[in-house]
Amino acid sequence: MTSPTGYDGNWLPSDADPRFDGKPVGELATYRDYLRNYRLTLELKCADLTPEQLATRSVPPSTLSLLGLVRHMARVEHSWFQRALQRNLDEPRPYSGSDEPDIEFGQAVGTQECVDEAFDSWKREIARAEDWLHAQSDASMGDEVVYNSDGETTTVRDILVHMVEEYARHCGHADLLRECIDGRTGQ
Fold first, then answer.
1. Where are the domains of the chain?
2. Rounded distance between C-alpha atoms, residue 155 and residue 158, angstroms
3. Which of 16, 69, 130, 155 is paired with 77 by a 20 to 30 Å CA distance?
4. Where would I find the H helices in 78-111?
5. How far is CA 175 from CA 108, 120, 178, in A?
6. CATH assignment of 30-182?
7. Is 76 exposed, middle or buried (0-12, 13-18, 19+ CB in 10 A)?
8. Burial class (CB in 10 A: 0-12, 13-18, 19+), 111
9. 104-114 pLDDT, tens per residue?
10. Cα-flanking dihedrals φ and ψ of residue 141, to 5°?
Protein backbone atom coordinates (compact mmCIF):
# COMPACT_ATOMS: atom_id res chain seq x y z
CA MET A 1 0.00 0.00 0.00
CA THR A 2 1.27 3.43 -0.83
CA SER A 3 1.19 6.00 1.90
CA PRO A 4 -0.33 9.18 0.52
CA THR A 5 0.71 11.76 3.06
CA GLY A 6 -1.30 14.62 1.75
CA TYR A 7 -0.04 17.96 0.59
CA ASP A 8 2.71 19.32 2.83
CA GLY A 9 0.93 17.67 5.75
CA ASN A 10 -2.50 18.85 4.65
CA TRP A 11 -5.37 16.68 3.46
CA LEU A 12 -5.87 18.66 0.24
CA PRO A 13 -3.97 21.30 -1.69
CA SER A 14 -4.66 24.64 -0.04
CA ASP A 15 -6.54 25.96 -3.09
CA ALA A 16 -8.90 22.94 -3.02
CA ASP A 17 -9.57 22.79 0.72
CA PRO A 18 -13.16 23.85 1.58
CA ARG A 19 -12.18 24.55 5.18
CA PHE A 20 -11.07 28.05 5.84
CA ASP A 21 -9.98 30.48 8.46
CA GLY A 22 -12.81 32.91 7.99
CA LYS A 23 -11.37 35.23 10.63
CA PRO A 24 -14.71 35.25 12.42
CA VAL A 25 -15.74 38.29 14.38
CA GLY A 26 -17.51 37.57 17.65
CA GLU A 27 -18.08 34.60 19.88
CA LEU A 28 -20.93 32.95 17.99
CA ALA A 29 -19.17 33.39 14.64
CA THR A 30 -16.10 31.69 16.10
CA TYR A 31 -18.10 28.65 17.27
CA ARG A 32 -19.85 28.41 13.92
CA ASP A 33 -16.53 28.61 12.06
CA TYR A 34 -14.96 25.84 14.16
CA LEU A 35 -18.05 23.64 13.84
CA ARG A 36 -18.15 24.15 10.08
CA ASN A 37 -14.50 23.22 9.68
CA TYR A 38 -14.70 20.13 11.89
CA ARG A 39 -17.86 18.95 10.14
CA LEU A 40 -16.08 19.34 6.80
CA THR A 41 -13.03 17.52 8.17
CA LEU A 42 -15.12 14.49 9.12
CA GLU A 43 -16.77 14.54 5.71
CA LEU A 44 -13.39 14.76 3.96
CA LYS A 45 -12.01 11.84 5.99
CA CYS A 46 -14.92 9.74 4.68
CA ALA A 47 -14.64 10.85 1.04
CA ASP A 48 -13.87 8.42 -1.77
CA LEU A 49 -14.33 5.27 0.32
CA THR A 50 -16.60 2.32 -0.37
CA PRO A 51 -19.40 1.41 2.03
CA GLU A 52 -17.30 -1.52 3.22
CA GLN A 53 -14.33 0.74 3.91
CA LEU A 54 -16.51 3.26 5.76
CA ALA A 55 -17.82 0.45 7.98
CA THR A 56 -14.34 -0.98 8.68
CA ARG A 57 -13.92 -1.32 12.42
CA SER A 58 -10.82 -0.10 14.18
CA VAL A 59 -9.51 -2.67 16.65
CA PRO A 60 -11.57 -5.55 18.07
CA PRO A 61 -13.63 -5.50 20.19
CA SER A 62 -14.26 -1.83 19.35
CA THR A 63 -17.14 -1.01 17.01
CA LEU A 64 -15.56 2.31 16.01
CA SER A 65 -15.71 3.06 12.27
CA LEU A 66 -15.95 6.13 10.06
CA LEU A 67 -19.56 5.26 9.27
CA GLY A 68 -20.27 4.83 12.96
CA LEU A 69 -18.76 8.26 13.62
CA VAL A 70 -21.08 9.86 11.07
CA ARG A 71 -24.08 8.15 12.66
CA HIS A 72 -22.85 9.11 16.13
CA MET A 73 -22.45 12.76 15.16
CA ALA A 74 -26.00 12.82 13.76
CA ARG A 75 -27.17 11.64 17.16
CA VAL A 76 -24.94 14.15 19.00
CA GLU A 77 -26.12 17.05 16.81
CA HIS A 78 -29.72 16.07 17.52
CA SER A 79 -29.17 15.60 21.26
CA TRP A 80 -27.57 18.97 21.85
CA PHE A 81 -29.24 21.22 19.29
CA GLN A 82 -32.73 19.73 19.24
CA ARG A 83 -33.20 18.22 22.68
CA ALA A 84 -31.06 20.43 24.92
CA LEU A 85 -31.09 23.81 23.21
CA GLN A 86 -34.57 23.75 21.68
CA ARG A 87 -36.30 21.32 24.09
CA ASN A 88 -37.71 19.17 21.25
CA LEU A 89 -38.02 16.24 23.63
CA ASP A 90 -40.82 14.40 21.84
CA GLU A 91 -38.88 13.81 18.62
CA PRO A 92 -37.43 10.36 18.14
CA ARG A 93 -33.68 10.37 18.57
CA PRO A 94 -31.58 9.12 15.67
CA TYR A 95 -30.42 5.54 16.21
CA SER A 96 -32.64 4.79 19.16
CA GLY A 97 -35.24 2.17 19.87
CA SER A 98 -32.86 -0.58 20.91
CA ASP A 99 -31.26 -1.65 24.15
CA GLU A 100 -27.98 -2.07 22.27
CA PRO A 101 -25.39 0.33 23.69
CA ASP A 102 -23.74 2.52 21.06
CA ILE A 103 -26.25 1.38 18.43
CA GLU A 104 -24.98 4.04 16.03
CA PHE A 105 -21.65 2.19 15.91
CA GLY A 106 -22.80 -1.40 16.34
CA GLN A 107 -25.31 -1.28 13.49
CA ALA A 108 -23.11 0.63 11.03
CA VAL A 109 -22.85 -1.87 8.18
CA GLY A 110 -21.08 -1.60 4.85
CA THR A 111 -24.07 -1.16 2.56
CA GLN A 112 -24.85 1.80 0.34
CA GLU A 113 -28.25 2.07 2.00
CA CYS A 114 -26.68 2.40 5.46
CA VAL A 115 -24.15 4.97 4.17
CA ASP A 116 -26.83 7.05 2.44
CA GLU A 117 -29.07 7.00 5.49
CA ALA A 118 -26.20 7.97 7.81
CA PHE A 119 -25.05 10.92 5.72
CA ASP A 120 -28.63 12.08 5.10
CA SER A 121 -29.37 11.98 8.83
CA TRP A 122 -26.14 13.76 9.75
CA LYS A 123 -26.60 16.51 7.14
CA ARG A 124 -30.24 16.98 8.13
CA GLU A 125 -29.23 17.47 11.78
CA ILE A 126 -26.44 19.88 10.79
CA ALA A 127 -28.91 21.94 8.73
CA ARG A 128 -31.34 22.06 11.64
CA ALA A 129 -28.54 23.11 14.00
CA GLU A 130 -27.40 25.82 11.59
CA ASP A 131 -30.96 27.14 11.29
CA TRP A 132 -31.08 27.52 15.07
CA LEU A 133 -27.59 29.03 15.27
CA HIS A 134 -28.49 31.57 12.58
CA ALA A 135 -31.16 32.99 14.90
CA GLN A 136 -28.72 33.39 17.82
CA SER A 137 -26.40 36.25 18.76
CA ASP A 138 -23.31 36.79 20.88
CA ALA A 139 -25.63 38.04 23.63
CA SER A 140 -27.38 34.65 23.83
CA MET A 141 -24.17 32.69 24.49
CA GLY A 142 -24.53 33.12 28.25
CA ASP A 143 -28.19 32.08 28.30
CA GLU A 144 -28.94 29.23 30.70
CA VAL A 145 -30.59 26.10 29.31
CA VAL A 146 -31.87 22.95 30.97
CA TYR A 147 -29.94 20.19 29.28
CA ASN A 148 -31.14 16.94 30.84
CA SER A 149 -34.10 15.26 32.49
CA ASP A 150 -32.63 15.96 35.95
CA GLY A 151 -33.12 19.69 35.38
CA GLU A 152 -29.41 20.50 35.30
CA THR A 153 -28.50 23.72 33.53
CA THR A 154 -25.59 25.02 31.52
CA THR A 155 -25.05 27.86 29.07
CA VAL A 156 -25.44 27.93 25.31
CA ARG A 157 -21.72 28.74 25.23
CA ASP A 158 -20.84 25.54 27.12
CA ILE A 159 -22.89 23.40 24.75
CA LEU A 160 -21.27 24.96 21.68
CA VAL A 161 -17.78 24.50 23.14
CA HIS A 162 -18.73 20.89 23.90
CA MET A 163 -19.81 20.40 20.28
CA VAL A 164 -16.46 21.75 19.03
CA GLU A 165 -14.69 19.39 21.45
CA GLU A 166 -16.83 16.45 20.37
CA TYR A 167 -15.99 17.00 16.71
CA ALA A 168 -12.29 17.61 17.44
CA ARG A 169 -12.01 14.33 19.36
CA HIS A 170 -13.84 12.33 16.73
CA CYS A 171 -11.91 13.91 13.86
CA GLY A 172 -8.80 12.58 15.60
CA HIS A 173 -10.39 9.13 15.55
CA ALA A 174 -11.25 9.65 11.88
CA ASP A 175 -7.60 10.50 11.11
CA LEU A 176 -6.44 7.17 12.48
CA LEU A 177 -9.29 5.18 10.93
CA ARG A 178 -8.64 6.63 7.50
CA GLU A 179 -4.90 6.02 7.73
CA CYS A 180 -5.59 2.35 8.60
CA ILE A 181 -7.90 1.99 5.60
CA ASP A 182 -5.76 3.40 2.80
CA GLY A 183 -2.75 5.12 4.34
CA ARG A 184 -3.98 8.62 3.58
CA THR A 185 -2.98 11.22 6.13
CA GLY A 186 -3.12 14.95 6.53
CA GLN A 187 -4.91 17.46 8.75
1. 30-182
2. 5
3. 16
4. 103-106
5. 18, 22, 5
6. 1.20.120.450
7. buried
8. middle
9. 999 999 999 99
10. -65, -30
